[in-house]
Amino acid sequence: MVTYKDGQVRAARNKGHLKNAGETSLTVKQVKDTFANRGSIQVAFSEAMVDLEAAINKLTPEQKQDFFGNGTKFVNFEILYPDTANVIPYGATQLRLHNITEYDPAGNVINTDTDKVHQLEGAIRQVEAQNQKTYEIRITDPVTINKSADYKKQKEELVGMLTALRTKFNLNRTDKISIYLQAWWKQYLTNTAKQYKYDVPADVMQQLINRWAFSNKDVNIKTIRDGIQNEDFKNWVVSFDGKESINQKKICVRPIEILFLRLGVYVLKNISQLVSINPNDSVRQIKADLDDAISRIKASASTPEMKDDGAALAFLKRELTRLKDIGGFKAIVPLEGIVFKYNGRLYKLTGAFAPINQILGYLKF
């Protein structure tokens, strides 16, 4: 996020930098210092600031005030730099402007304007400042989503998945995902308690659901434990709290996750006007990187140095299963996702990027 404040181009990387009209936002030098000695990452961020500073400085004082409000408005942008590509090799060196967002003194969003950023790009082009030393500065391309030849079949498949989930947990069309989480965990806890011949009281049931489904820990585990009148179930709750509950939460949300990831695959496969310079080359590179990462995780898991080899293989199996469930390697497209607005709120829909990002980043991070 970048703004113009008190005669300087400034950057924000967290909410603290956005507060009080960017009072603690970073100068160009501070951004350079933040990424010092980090190779290509330092170059990518530092040169982005240098190029934006050069472009914004060509605007009139009135334009700077209009677009940035002396630190109250920030342009949200993305750096495309080949040497620092994370998952998608776009093959472009660009700064993609997404929107201009206005913040209150506490750093909360007041307004997000996707039209104003078009005016900013137009103003930069008007003074011929769009092509800088390292980057080309341009807005994020609006994309065209073509209707799939298999639209009817895909729609029936996705609606069928959703209907099956509703039926299983006796949910209505208007129920939100939180109701599904509540129903899933109630069923899971009830079935588990039966093994210990225990009928979980309503208050204890809700406390456990709040803790494990919604990460609400207002009631600590000791208090919950003291309210359980069954030693076996009490011991299970204590041992389950923590890593096991986190793993079970992933199992709980998986049907919803797969539904949306598969939707993402169908949508992304029908998008034209991609950012990638050469989409076919990008897909080939992603597949090659994925094959290499899978081989390296397997190899690392079998060496003495890898202390959590079981965890590594379990992780790989989980992510490969996610990828398989949404179409496998055929689901790979050369973009991370599509951002869209629905009922005034911004959403991002991704497909195969989610599991691929996890696999490629496992050994890297």
Explained architecture:
- The protein is of the alpha+beta class.
- The protein folds into 3 domains: 2-139, no CATH class; 151-245, no CATH class; 274-364, no CATH class.
- 53% of the residues lie in helices and 14% in strands.
- It has helices spanning 15-22, 28-34, 40-56, 61-68, 116-126, 151-168, 177-195, 202-213, 221-226, 231-240, 243-268, 279-301, 309-325, 353-364, and strands at residues 2-5, 8-11, 73-80, 94-103, 109-113, 136-139, 144-145, 271-272, 337-342, 345-350.
- Strands 3, 4, 5 and 6 form a 4-stranded mixed beta sheet that branches. Strands 1-2 form a two-stranded antiparallel sheet. The chain has a two-stranded antiparallel sheet with strand order 7-8.
- A hairpin with a 2-residue loop joins β9 (337-342) and β10 (345-350).
- α6 (151-168) packs antiparallel against α11 (243-268), α7 (177-195) crosses α8 (202-213) and α13 runs antiparallel to α14 (353-364).
- The longest helix is centred in the C-terminal third of the chain and has 26 residues, at 243-268.
- The protein is globular and about 75 Å long.
- The chain starts with a strand and ends with a helix.
- The model has no long low-confidence stretch (mean pLDDT 88).
